[in-house]
Amino acid sequence: MRAVGALDGVRLVVAGDGPERASLERLSAEVARGSVEFLGSVDQPETVLAAADTLVLPSLTEGLPAVLIEAAFTGVPAVATDVGGVREIVRDAETGFVVAPGDPVALAAALRDALAAPSELGERARTHCLARFEIGVVADAWDALIADLL
Questions:
Q1: Is residue 49 part of a domain?
Q2: Chain centre to alpha carbon of residue 49
Q3: Same domain, 71 and 38
Q4: How far apart are alpha carbons 71 and 48 in whole angstroms?
Q5: Mean pLDDT, residues 59-86 taken together
Q6: How does pLDDT run across 13-35, given as a tens digit for each residue?
Q7: Rounded to an integer, what distance in angstroms lies between the CA atom of residue 87 and that of residue 94?
Q8: Given this model, what pLDDT does residue 79 score?
Q9: Dihedral pair phi/psi, residue 71, rounded to 5°
């Protein structure tokens, strides 16, 4: 929220719901008034991705976040925090941007950079993720692993 509040003309759409929603709504009213819309649970997240210029994932903890892969498959670059397996998906300054968790200034700068070239970043993100995470590629890797184990 603070990163969006620091950028003029940027609109954040939050898809999903959870126990932190009320506190995030209060924070957005304080630091990014009028720039944040909360959608709640979304039945068809692909429609949200289709409308997005950039996906932002400011997590404090993650595993291998599928939402970053899904965004890349649709050509949407990401700005994400450097947690879990994020760097397996987002190549900093190549397919999106990776910043330290809890740093709204760095997040705002990365978001500004991503919004300056979303098409180029998005195409590189798509190419990268199709080569590593497309179901055929993953199935082939599993087949190879199983063959090695047998």
A1: no
A2: 10
A3: no
A4: 10
A5: 97
A6: 999 999 999 999 999 999 999 99
A7: 11
A8: 98
A9: -65, -45
Do 18 and 61 sit in the same domain of this protein?
no
Reported confidence tier of residue 74, pLDDT bands at 50, 70, 90? very high
d(CA 69, CA 32): 28
Number of domains in the chain: 2
Cβ pair 76, 68 in contact under 8 A? no
What order of strands is seen across the sheet that includes strand 55-57?
A: 55-57, 78-81, 96-99
* First vs last C-alpha separation in the chain: 50
Residue 9 belongs to domain spanning: 1-43
Q: What is the pLDDT of residues 116-147, one digit of tens each?
A: 999 999 999 999 999 999 999 999 999 999 99
Looking at the fold, whether 131 and 79 belong to one and the same domain comes out as yes
Helix (H) or strand (E) holding 57: strand 55-57
